[in-house]
Specification:
It contains 28 helices and 21 strands. 45% of the residues lie in helices and 15% in strands. Helix 16 packs across helix 20 and helix 19 crosses helix 20. The chain is α/β, with parallel strands linked by helices and 719 residues long. The relative contact order is 0.11. The chain has 5 domains: 185 residues, Rossmann fold, CATH 3.40.50.300; 73 residues, Arc Repressor Mutant, subunit A, CATH 1.10.10.160; 192 residues, Rossmann fold; 111 residues, Orthogonal Bundle (PCRA, domain 4), CATH 1.10.486.10; 61 residues, Thrombin, subunit H. It binds adenosine-5'-triphosphate and magnesium ion. Magnesium ion binds next to helix 3.
Length: 719
């Protein structure tokens, strides 16, 4: 059969066993890069192409929305039927789809809106204020953590036992009040998406029966990172007839801090009877060196199922370890290596820079910009999370649903329209007293109950929104977005100041219109285009959004690199306290999780891996002396090659070509060299730019901080 060979030929023996297994529960347990995701995709193709399962009957859970898109793209040529009918997505994406379809059963308003964690935080603060609870004593972040972990454990406020402990009682009270406010405003936070979808299936027997009949096959990638609720949901949907196919790697479990339970992998065979287990041991991704190093590192973890990976590929180059002076030097090193790679004909999109914490990206970005290397940040500060974008989206949300209190609150006085804090407070109390939305309360008060001037302002706001609503009726999404931005004066508001930042904000607003234009809605009758776009902005933001993805170096945290692969990988900031993170150093479980994170990072690399650490790093405002990460010592030394700092303080290294120019300035100074300046005192050379008369040099002065100087005039003396 033609289909059979298309599906099985690109697989090894063990992979075929999993893909071609007779229908039943299957667990594939294997290390990084062994083809788990490939197996999952081929299994779907097998089910459809060979077993004759309808795409409609398949539910596949991926780790990112991007992975879902890739899965569809890779499937289509294999199965020759549209993969659209399949439900593929993240747990959150799938839960959202279900809630849109069944908003009635879920007891949600049809126009319910999703709020991200920033909106949730604001709503919690407002709740605390309403309860007259002190933020110092009840930090909103802590409340947020409490609420979300309750939801992840499927616990509603009423399920939480009152233990008589005062603090706990108060926290439950906040949770309950937050839920009431969220519910009244028709809002759904991320954790709510999952819990609500789970409860809706659990409590509505017709609905459950329908989906159990429909989804005869459920497949889950990255299973080691499912939490209790997600696991319960899969069990619920599978019922007694659904076949569940999971792939995972206990060594890559990195979300226990978000409630993921790696023991779900072990429990699986108890909960799903007659589970077959397949292990994959051949790695197809990385060189022998990278693999050996990663295996050596993860071998230091005690709690693991234990597996070794091998590769038939070449050993490749050693892993380069660079000890930088500081984070600038480290970033410069990365940039130099990237320039070398590009000069040798390599592509930028083949490169990833991975770091432990988002804050590390700034210095890297600075250097990349200076070197004119395009980059994009994957999952960092997302486009849709920028203030100006959230303002515009809040208008669109309020246009969709007047009950959306979070949106109302965000924009009622943005741009400033003379509706001050006192007025908003009055609106809030009126809403609370009458159990109505802020919108409704504002309308009420504007008629009667506010000083004349304030009442007029509020009425004007209400009229603006209503007029805009009528105005955008029937418009294409991007036209509507454009109209909203213009008519509300957001552009003028955010363009104030006229500086570069203001320009950037205006450009971002334009970019929102472009994003709306480029947006292709699914042909999904349950949601109109604006609703889909708003959901996309909160759920998928930052994953695929506009930008020259193909032409850019990718920057991301180690966490968001999971499942991906790149020919050239830089792991930066391998320092005690940063990675492993300070929080986990004293805790054996925490430390093992950090080590798994390091394993995930290393195994993203296909051909070449660079690791670096800095001796001094400024993080969160203070400068620290940093010891190299213990993980560097745990990697067997044979795989490593120490790269000497290019500064070679006494022995400058001359090499022809761009690299040497970047490392040594016309003034004969080296990167990292200590120099003295008449006015600024002593400092360290950080970077060079340009040559000849226009050459500039950056020095980090001990007292005066970092400065760019014209090399020819600076009169820097080596010391
Ligand atoms: P991770 O644990 O990082 O998610 P994984 O186990 O899911 O990794 P894949 O991403 O599926 O691994 O595969 C890793 C790489 O190896 C991919 O580039 C994939 O196309 C390739 N690959 C997998 N199996 C084979 C095979 N049998 N022959 C050739 N290449 C393969
Ligand atoms: Mg994978």
């Amino acid at each position: 059969m033609d289909d059979v060979s298309t599906i099985l030929d690109p697989l090894n023996e063990a992979q075929r066993e999993a893909v071609g297994a007779p229908p039943g529960h299957m667990r594939v347990l294997a290390g990084a890069g062994s083809g788990k995701t490939r197996v999952l995709i081929h299994r779907i193709a097998w089910l459809i192409g060979v077993e004759g399962v309808s795409p409609q009957s398949i539910l596949a859970v991926t780790f990112t929305n991007k992975a879902a898109g890739e899965m569809r793209a890779r499937l289509e040529p294999m199965i020759r039927v549209p993969a659209r009918a399949m439900w593929v997505g993240t747990f959150h994406g799938i839960a959202h789809r279900l809630l849109r379809l069944h908003y009635k059963e879920a007891k949600l308003p049809q126009a319910f809106q999703i709020i991200d964690s920033d909106d949730q935080y604001r709503l919690i603060r407002r709740t605390l204020k309403n309860l007259e609870m002190d933020e110092q004593r009840w930090p909103p972040r802590q409340m947020q953590g409490f609420i979300n972990s309750c939801k992840d454990a499927a616990e509603r406020p009423r399920d939480l036992a009152d233990t008589g402990d005062y603090a706990r009682t108060q926290m439950i009270r906040v949770y309950a009040a937050y839920e009431a406010a969220r519910e009244a405003a028709g809002l759904v936070d991320f954790a709510e998406l999952l819990l609500r979808a789970y409860e809706t299936c659990r409590d509505d027997s017709d609905l459950l029966a329908h989906y159990r009949r429909r989804f005869s096959h459920l497949l889950v990638d990255e299973f080691q990172d499912t939490n209790a609720l997600q696991y319960a949901w899969i069990r619920l949907l599978a019922g007694s007839n659904g076949r569940v196919f999971i792939v995972g790697d206990d060594d890559q479990s990195i979300y226990s801090w978000r409630g993921a339970r790696v023991d779900n992998i072990l429990r699986f065979e108890d909960d799903f009877k007659d589970t077959a287990t397949v292990r994959l041991e051949q790695n197809y991704r990385s060189t022998g060196t990278i693999l050996g190093a990663a295996n050596g590192l993860i071998g230091h973890n005690l709690s693991r199922l234990g597996k070794e990976l091998w590769t038939a590929g070449a050993d490749g180059e050693p892993i380069d370890i660079y000890g930088a002076f500081n984070e600038y030097d480290e970033a410069q090193h990365v940039v130099n290596r990237i320039q070398g790679w590009i000069a040798d004909g390599g592509k930028r999109s083949d490169i990833a820079i991975l770091y432990r914490s988002n804050a590390q990206s700034r210095v890297l970005e600075e250097r990349l910009i200076a070197a004119e290397i395009s980059y994009r940040i994957y999952g960092g500060q997302k486009f849709f999370e920028r203030a100006e974008i959230k303002d515009a989206l809040a208008y669109m949300r309020l246009l969709q649903s007047r009950a959306d209190d979070a949106a109302f609150e965000r924009i009622v006085n943005t741009p400033t329209r003379g509706i001050g804090a006192t007025t908003v407070d009055k609106i809030r109390s009126h809403a609370r007293a009458g159990a109505m939305s802020l919108w409704q309360a504002a309308f009420d008060l504007a008629q009667n109950g506010l000083p004349a001037r304030a009442g007029k302002m509020v009425m004007a706001f209400i009229e603006t929104i209503d007029a805009l609503d009528a105005d955008i009726e029937g418009m294409a999404l991007h036209e509507a977005a454009d109209r909203v931005i213009e008519a509300t004066g957001l552009k003028v508001h955010h363009g104030k100041g006229g500086d570069e930042k203001a320009e950037g904000r205006k450009e971002n607003l334009d970019e929102l219109v472009s994003a709306a234009r480029a947006y292709t809605p699914d042909d999904d009758e349950t949601m109109d285009e604006i609703t889909q776009f708003l959901a996309y902005a909160s759920l998928e933001a930052g994953e695929n959004q506009a930008g020259e993805w193909d032409e850019s170096v990718q920057l991301m945290t180690l966490h968001s690199a999971k499942g991906l692969e790149f020919p050239l990988v830089f792991m930066v900031g391998l320092e005690e306290g940063l990675f492993p993170h300070q929080r986990s150093i004293d805790d054996e479980n925490g430390l093992e999780e950090e080590r798994r994170l390091c394993y995930v990072g290393m195994t993203r690399a296909m051909d070449k891996l660079h690791i670096s650490h800095a001796e001094v790093r400024r993080l969160h405002g203070s400068e620290n002396l940093c010891a190299p990460s213990r993980f560097l010592r745990e990697i067997p030394a044979d795989y490593l090659r120490e790269v000497r700092p290019q500064a070679g303080i006494s022995q400058p290294v001359f090499r022809p070509g761009a690299l040497a120019r970047a490392e040594q300035s016309a003034a004969g100074l080296n990167l990292g060299q200590r120099v003295g300046h008449r006015k600024f005192g002593e400092g360290t050379v950080l970077a060079f730019e340009g040559d000849g008369a226009r050459a500039r040099i950056q020095v980090n002065f001990d007292r005066a901080g970092s400065k760019w100087l014209i090399a020819g005039y600076a009169k820097l003396d080596p010391i």
